[in-house]
Amino acid sequence: MKHFNVLIVGAGLSGIGAACQLKLNCPNKSFAIFEGRSSMGGTWDLFRYPGIRSDSDMYTLGYRFRPWQDAKAIADGPAILNYIRETALEFGVDKQICYNHRVKRACWSSEQAHWVVEAEIGSEKQLTQFTCNFLYLCTGYYDYENGYTPEWPGVERFQGRIVHPQKWPQDLDYKGKRVVVIGSGATAVTLVPAMAEQASHVIMLQRSPTYIATLPSEDKVANLLRKYLPSHIAYMLTRWKNVLLGMFFYNLARKKPEFMKRMLSKKIHHYLGEDYAHKHFTPSYNPWDQRLCLVPNGDLFKAIRSGKASMVTDHIESFTETGLKLKSGEQLNADIIVTATGLVMKLLSGLELVVDGKPVDLSKKMSYKGMMYSDVPNAVSAIGYTNASWTLKCDLIAEYICRILNHMDSHNYVQCTPRVKDPSMQSEPIVDFSSGYVQRALHTLPKQGSKVPWRLHQNYIRDLSMLRYGSVEDGSIEFKRLSAIQRVATTEVISHA
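Now predict its structure.
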């Protein structure tokens, strides 16, 4: 069996970032990236629907170690994919990617202090085993195979085409067609203005409104700083500006929700008028109970104002031959219906973990620092923030894992395992989010604890202090060395790899 010091699962934004951090901070570690698909990029390669873009600025969604240098702060999908590919090429980690290697199972042996990883390789799905000392899971948080589609009466009656954005058909011609986009999240608000450029008309059908913020697609401060300062300095200054602004507005939303509601609605009133805004853009919940949607330069509102798009807030009674019948009695005619109804959460991409012969049930585990799991040795998951850019947390996790690996080397440790040792520790849901995709999967997710380091704060500065500068030996992680007998057995296994 081939052996690696670190095996990274997933070649998306977080997987490429993790590999680059290993090259920078642990240059003596052997590693590979196993990617189940045939190309890198993860989300940014998978999603191909019109207008696909980030809903975070690229100065925080980008890597800390590689400046984003394009003029647009809110970037489209192809630009982000190109950034990931260029980063992999620049740091030489593209050579470590093993495509069409889908990891199905990983079994930890405390006796040998390593993981035995089973992966299906190629179109034949040949099951092959590998070993690694450390398992780094960069698999994202949703099911790559299928998105979420509710069951609606009469779907089979519709004579047009039904499309889910996660599997966008490249041959879909919507020019001059009537389109209904079902949904009110980030995907829907992206699709509507993009499709409105060619469709005869696009209707965004939502059950209930979502909070939507509008920002310029370009960051004037960033572009000005880059003009007069070295790119890495301009990038870090802009990154910190955006981190602090994001934290400020998030905390303002939690402490003064009514003020935030007025602030968010002001822009919409400007574009669409008070009556339209009140009817279609006034959610029943407070800002940041669900993630805010972002529309650069108000493109959604401009499409509605131009008459190329419109909003309908209602519930679907049934599909018909020509479109949708709503509970209000209204009929929406459509040639194409896009079900932008969300994702299916699926931690670890369905990978099965086994520790010393016992399957791991993540719903019974507690999350350590938002990255490892109680009683699961030498394994980490790259999970980002719900209230800020995904990469901010993933970058910190990668740095911290490099610190752990170097700490283990310097002390001859071979195993590190988070342990809940405080009997007064209470378990709580890992996220406080009312979004449908979270609520549907909450029973499958690990828990968080009532105290640090088991409590998640969704706060970059607190995590920065804990992960970049805090002690690795914090009393909640157990380190072990190999016994003399184990050393002999492990040496024999690796020598035959």
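Residues 231-255 form the longest helix (25 residues).
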